[in-house]
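During data preparation, a discrete fold description was generated, as reproduced here:
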Amino acid sequence: MTDTANIKSGFGGSLTIGQRPALLIVDFQRGFTEPEISPLASDCSKSIAAVNQLIRAIRPHGPVIFTVCSYAPNLIDAGIWSQKCPTLSTLLRGSTACELDPTIEATEDDLVIEKTQASAFFGTPVAGILSAMKVDTLYLAGCTTSGCIRASVVDALQHGFPPFVVEEACADRSPQQHASNLIDMQNKYAEVINLPTALSQLSRMSITNN
């Protein structure tokens, strides 16, 4: 997955796993997982199955945080993004499109944070929450790989939370964009790992209080 040209340009380092992980699940809401609800959606069933494995594995060690994209009816909180993506109008706050996908194994103890832009960090309390919990390893999953996952990964790195993207737990409407963005994130901003690696890392962590 690594691009040797980027290594020659000075990239190709690696991030270190810590002992205080969190799982950030970006926008696995019905407006992105059920095509009959929104044109923004695609089949995310395989990725959600992987996410559920991650959720079970991380619960003894750290928090599970979800984000959902949601907007006011006039889209004023979407800013100019709605000019580029007018179908954001299908994600109105309080609607079915803004509910978590029902096949995800969420509980009442999990955080669900609303956002209006691509990154899970932009205009949200996510960075403060992770800092307060002293998180040193941030696993990322959700959709889309080329959009909100990538934006969240870059911000996670800039905020000092080492991002670990779980490949099978991410989805995109375009397989080509999914693949190319995983390569670019691995080279520059994150560790892109497969699901067995993530589960193995979590199994080796000592049990900590959330």
Notes: The helical segments are 4-8, 30-33, 45-58, 81-84, 126-132, 145-159, 175-188, 195-204.
